[in-house]
Amino acid sequence: IVATVTASAVAVTGVGAVGVDEFRSSQTEAIELAQGSLSDAQERIDEAAARIADLELAISNAQDILDGSEGKTLDEQAREDLDKEIAAAQKTLKQEKEQLFSLKQTVRTLAALDINGFFWPGNVKDTATEVSSAEGADTTKIITKVSGLGDRIKAVQSAQAAWQAEQDRIAAEAAAEAA
Fold first, then answer.
1. What is the per-residue pLDDT across 10-19, written as a single tens digit (0 to 9) for each?
2. For residues 58 and 31, what is the distance between their CA atoms, to the nearest angstrom?
3. How far apart are CA 71 and CA 59, in angstroms?
């Protein structure tokens, strides 16, 4: 009987040691996944923040052009198109800022987990996976909006140049008649 109890104790201790090793391995895996997810997410956040800043500047410049061109274009359609593009860009800006905020919140959740002490690896792995799959701002969409604003600005500037040429022509005719 003593031999049976001793053999059982040794077997349970061996199984326990294997379980502890697997748990530690799982914790190490979770830490590596979390660190990789955080690094990747920070790169996505930085890129999105830069593109969002570009869009904010493009919207501001477009609004200045729109305001400064009032009554000074030969074709008002270009101004109307720019106004519509500004509204669409502002909508995109709002959506992409919300997406970026959401990604930042998910990253904060992962960064707040205590992975230096005892932790359940499954929780860390799940949150790290959530960070990796979380949508951040769509930088391609933002770049497309910046480009669209640029195109509309050029159209307004061309309409302004045509208006100025017409004003110059009218002034030249008036000067010729006066002479």
1. 444 444 555 6
2. 40
3. 20
The pTM for the full model equals 0.78
Question: Residue 86 and residue 148: Cα distance in Å, rounded?
Answer: 9
pLDDT level of residue 20 (50, 70, 90 thresholds): confident
Q: How far is CA 171 from the centre of its chain?
A: 50
Q: Count the alpha carbons within 13 Å of 23 in the hemisphere toward its beta carbon.
A: 9
Question: Is the Cβ–Cβ distance between 156 and 71 less than 8 Å?
Answer: no
* CA-angle at 157, arms to 60 and 155, nearest 5°: 90
> 115 to each of 4, 27, 32, 37, how far by Cα in Å?
41, 8, 10, 14
> Taking Cα atoms as reference points, which of 166, 162, 145 lies closest to residue 77?
162
Contacts of residue 132, defined as CB under 8 A and 6 or more positions apart, other chains included, come to: 36, 37, 40, 41
Residues in the chain: 179
* Of the candidates 41, 30, 32, 35, the residue with the CA atom closest to the CA atom of residue 104: 41
